[in-house]
Design goal:
285 residues, alpha/beta, Cytidine Deaminase, domain 2, disordered N terminus
């Protein structure tokens, strides 16, 4: 377990809010209450310099800050963070991180200003060379049975309280080799949910070499890049991957699974980490 001076997660911002709506059903209209997911501007500052503003669910922001710092290559390990503070401002939340001098120097060398909308991963990128980072191929020996992966997605559907209330959030979870869910994080943005999961795992000192990251979204190139950057061997998504995500997964030795639904999924890259696959003749490919 990595010990960081963490502030309490509770803020005046709520991840969900009750709103007044007008429902129309079968020709009749009525005023009623509903629950909506909140998204708040979150500014990430490193050593006093604003680096990124992302719209995110105002929950588990410590995990988000640590995970974003790791998956974006700003830090190499949570111990590179010396301090982390949150400040509520009228327009959002500022997360201020104090990081090691060497890591801050590296950040300044490749610094980009990234004002992000929900689901946006390239806003503010200054050049094409910043899109694809130099990431070592994944060496994870993780192995998950196809049936265990199915069980993980079944359990994930039943363990998303924000999604159940609002219908507007994504989830990212860590599944152990037997399909059990060890950790779940939710956010309005799919990238944010994955960053929160990775940050929480890093702070808890969890082994990323055994198991799978399962997400309730499509698998974009950035989801693949963030997963591979952490050395996670398997990324399984409930929706489709893009061509770029598939090619990146192949080049980084990442197992990529898409369309993970009831009794069904599609392997796009790295089939050797998923057990239990047989062809129509009953022979493993």
């Amino acid at each position: 377990m990595i010990a960081l001076p963490m502030p309490p997660s509770a803020t005046r911002y709520s991840a969900v809010e009750t709103v007044t709506v007008r429902r129309w059903r079968d020709g009749l209209a009525a005023v009623a209450s509903d629950v909506a997911a909140a998204e708040v501007p979150v500014c990430l500052e490193f050593n006093g310099v604003s680096h990124a503003v992302m719209l995110a669910s105002p929950a588990d922001l410590e995990d988000f800050a640590v995970g974003f710092s790791l998956t974006e290559g700003i830090i190499d390990h949570p111990r590179d963070i010396h301090d982390l503070e949150m400040e509520e401002r009228c327009e959002g939340i500022a997360v201020r991180l104090s990081i090691a001098a060497a890591r801050f120097h590296r950040l300044k060398q490749r610094r980009r200003s990234m004002v992000g909308r929900t689901g946006c991963g390239l806003c503010g990128t200054e050049s094409l060379s910043q899109v694809f980072r130099d990431i070592a191929p994944v060496t994870s020996g993780a192995m998950v049975e196809a049936s265990a992966l199915q069980n993980a997605f079944t359990d994930l559907a039943a363990n998303q309280p924000m999604q159940r209330l609002t219908g507007a959030t994504h989830a990212a979870a860590w599944a152990t080799p037997d399909g059990a869910l060890a950790l779940i994080r939710e956010d309005v943005g799919r990238h944010n949910a994955l960053d929160k999961l990775i940050g929480a795992m890093a702070l808890a000192g969890m082994d990323v070499g055994a198991g799978a990251a399962v997400v309730t979204s499509r698998a974009s190139y950035e989801m693949v890049q963030k997963t591979a950057a952490m050395g996670i061997g398997i990324l399984a998504a409930i929706s489709a991957p893009t061509v770029l995500a598939i090619r990146m997964a192949e080049s980084l030795n990442l197992t990529l699974v898409g369309f993970a639904r009831h009794n069904h999924h599609v392997l796009y890259a790295g089939p050797e980490r998923i057990g239990g696959h047989v062809n129509s003749e009953g022979v493993a490919p």
